[in-house]
Please model this.
Amino acid sequence: MDAQLVVGRNIARLRLEKGLSQTQLASLIDQKLSISQSYLSKVERGEKNVTIQTMAFIAKGLGVRLVDLVVEDQG
Model:
């Protein structure tokens, strides 16, 4: 599977497991990054190729490890 899709699907899954909307997650991410709900939506759909730095901020906002965003689901 495409790495962008894996990351996007993991972000969406983890966000939903935490009961967060895209807007809520965007507001939890470090203010230095300034991620919008629209950008986050594109990331979740695999339309944006995010940097490691951006993934680190997203992981922190979700309260998960960075590796949790990149591991392909085996199920």
